[in-house]
Design goal:
Blueprint: E1 2-4, E2 7-9, H1 58-65, H2 69-78, E3 85-86, E4 92-93, H3 96-111, H4 115-127, H5 132-172
Antiparallel strand pairs: 1-2, 3-4
Helix pairs in contact: 4-5
């Protein structure tokens, strides 16, 4: 039985014999200077960009974000990307604020939030402060989904750890010879 967020979850047994539970190994954490700010509540660090620059071509944004030009144009077409400025020749010119938005959209994508919900969030954002409550509810709903997925992944990890330990133990067991 595994307990996650106060909820008990059972792990399927593969044997009638009780198996020792593997102990999680601590992962080394990168050393960062202490800023006195709680990392769980602090805003993420800004995406690294050339100092003093606030106008990027689509190819520069592709290089900075890893998104394709097609994806950037699609985001703009469906309303996920706010208005992108254009040069006098009509080329898109992205700002640091646009890049910050793309980082946020990338995080929303990682949560599994449906594109329609992301577009809805972007629309609410453009309307202004009167939509704070609706935006908060969209994010809270997504957060609940993420917590559920994390619990499922913890259960899956426990099963994998159990199987890995089983196979490691089987290799260490002495061979049995019949006489």
């Amino acid at each position: 039985m595994t307990v996650i967020d106060g909820t008990s979850r059972s792990i399927p047994a593969t044997s009638t014999q009780p198996q020792p539970q593997p102990q999680p190994q601590p992962q080394p954490q990168p050393q960062r200077p202490s800023s006195g700010v709680d990392a769980c509540t602090a805003a993420p660090e800004a995406h690294p960009r050339p100092a003093g620059k606030d106008s990027y071509t689509i190819s520069e944004v592709v290089a900075l974000t890893g998104l394709t030009a097609h994806t950037l144009r699609w985001y703009e077409r469906i309303g996920l990307m706010p208005h992108v400025d254009r040069s006098h020749t009509g080329q898109r010119r992205f700002s640091n604020r646009d890049l910050d938005w793309l980082v946020f959209v990338g995080k929303l994508r990682l949560t599994g939030m449906p594109v329609a919900d992301m577009v809805r969030y972007a629309e609410l954002l453009r309307v202004g402060e009167s939509t704070f409550e609706e935006r908060q509810e969209l994010l809270e709903s997504t957060r609940r989904d993420v917590i559920t997925r994390i619990a499922e992944l913890h259960d899956t990890l426990a099963v994998l750890d159990h199987k890995i330990e089983y196979y490691a133990g089987a290799r260490r067991a002495p061979e049995r010879h019949s006489a």
